[in-house]
Amino acid sequence: MKRILTGTFLSFFIAIAAFPLAAQDRQGGDDDAMLPEIDPQDIEIRSEFNARFPGLRRQPILGFEPASRVYRIDSDRMPYIESREEVVADLPISDMARPDPPPYARLHYSPDINAFGRVGGGSYTSPEANFWGVTRLNDKSYIGGDLDFSSSEGHLDGQASSFRFLTANGEFATKLDEQTRLGFDLGLQNSFNHMYGVETSLDIPDSPRKEHGGFDIGANLERMKNGVAGWQMQAHMRYYDARVLAGDLSGETDEGVYNVSLAKRWAGASPMETITAKLGGRMGDYSNSMVADQWMTGQAGVEYQRLFNYELHVTVDASIYYGSDAFEDKVYFGPSATVELPLFEGATLIGNIGARPYVRSAEQLHTTNRFLNSGNNFRHTYKMYGSGELKLTYSEVGTLSGGIRYEDISNHPVFERNAVATNPDQLLFYEVRYADATNVRLYAAATHQVVPEKFWLSGEAYAQLPELRDGGRIPFSEKLGLNSGFGLKLFDGMTIEGWADYRGIRENDQGQDMEDYLLVGGQLDVSITDKIGVYGKVVNLLDQQYQQWEGYVERPLQIYGGLTFKL
After folding, report:
1. Which of 165, 255, 349, 375 is 20 to 30 Å from 288 at the Cα level?
2. What does the pLDDT look like over 371-415, one tens digit per residue?
């Protein structure tokens, strides 16, 4: 009996002593675990101390000995961090894939079209046509073109006043690789207009006529490493011919203009900093019934651009030119500088100063004044200028701007009517004379959307003082002027546009006043389908009789109508 009691008591004591050990050996996954599972290597004790556990009645922590030596560890040591490769190695493959981006939604401000055309006619049997189009041949090339045509049988009684103006251009461009672009352009001009009648003792027909036109061809090659650094090379040739069929005043001018340029641009060390080296030349070869000669302009220079403090944008150009013509050979300095400084939110101050030489070609002069006779010389004009402008953006739908500009021009081309040598009172057609001139111009402009994307207004008013150095005003230059327009979108598919241009009193080459005039017009466009529409247009709504160039009365009120199409 004593043995049985002794065995029972011993078994009970062993069970009680083994229970704490079993509790510590339980896995941490049990929800009712009394103590967490602790890895002895995770235990870190800093500094030296003696741990005392009075009244401790359980198994001590494994791996811990109060009397053992503890080494001091730097508290500023770098903690252990897994490398990126070690982190990624433990990730599932599904977590390493890049997530799909959100779908791209293009912003459409206007319908996507590849071509637009307008064909119609107006008063005095005046057909007109306008066209532009572009299409992609593949993902690297495109081809495009435009056409502008207007014609009329004339509006004057007892005097021929018919005309035709035709200009057509084409362009092709392709990417040779990701950084290189090659482009070609081709143009054609074919026009005629009747000159005004003159009363003189010379043998001149009642309907003198002028025919003018030509062609141009060019190529452009550029290679850009990025949006900033790279180089560009251009070559261009234009041929122009103007013939005046007017009896004793008949003559012909033919001209070839050749232009070659090369530019290389580098990125600077600072943000928004670029340096561009430029080299180029322009040459004209002309002949007429009076003279045959050449002119040439060569340029070499460096342009520097930089954005300072992410606010002040500065552009400085240091160029030197060499000019040669029938009158002189000369070296010209052509520096320029442009500064754009934001004053505060919505206000920007723009300053510009510089100088440059140029030659207005025969094509440019005859296009400006279609009553210009042949037999003119060409020489270099040298312009020095300076301007200041303040631009205010007072809201998302409106801007205001205003400024002043001063120009000092040497050898400025001036149009004046030629006269019979034996009788200065018998005025003939126009010719070009070169004279020194100055001009001071004050201007103010505004644009505003009364109803965003529905009703908008724009306008610019200016006052200027164009004077010749030898006295008097520059002929056919007004002191006051206004250009304005508006657009109104009544609803989808119907748009009304209008304009009003004013030219103040001018002086002819004889110092006599020419009347001012105001040209008002409007146009209505209506879409019948997504591809086809109709339009109506009114020109010179006030039916004013005015002369842009003395001797020729321009057309009165005209009404146009026709079709429009989109592809």
Report:
1. 165
2. 999 888 899 999 999 999 999 998 888 999 999 999 999 999 999
Residue 411, both tokens: 């050898």
Report domain 71-566's class.
mainly beta
Rounded Cα–Cα distance for residues 84 and 489 (Å): 59
Sequence-ordered alpha helix ranges (H) in 284-415: 362-368
Residue whose C-alpha is closest to residue 447's, from 435, 456, 436, 437: 456
Taking CA atoms, 195 is separated from 208, 211, 353, 529, in Å, by: 5, 10, 40, 43
CA 53, 58, 61, 65 dihedral sign is: positive
Query: Cβ distance 152 to 162 under 8 Å?
Result: yes
Q: What is the pTM of this model?
A: 0.78
Sequence-separated contacts (24+) of 174-182 with Cβ below 8 Å = 174/140, 174/141, 174/142, 175/140, 175/141, 179/223, 179/224, 179/225, 179/230, 180/221, 180/222, 180/223, 181/220, 181/221, 181/222, 181/223, 181/224, 182/219, 182/220, 182/221
Element (H, E) at 173: strand 163-175
β-bridge mates for residue 427, sequence order: 419
Instruction: Work out the burial of residue 470: count CB atoms within 10 Å of its CB; fewer than 13 is exposed, 13-18 middle, 19 or more buried.
Output: exposed
**Domain extents in the chain:** 71-566
Q: Tell me which H or E stretch contains 378.
A: none
In angstroms, the CA 237 to CA 363 distance is 13
Q: Quick one: tokens of 445?
A: 């402009």
Residues 6+ apart with CB under 8 A from 89: none
SS3 state of residue 375: coil
Q: pLDDT digits over 52-82, tens only? A: 555 555 555 555 555 555 556 666 666 666 6
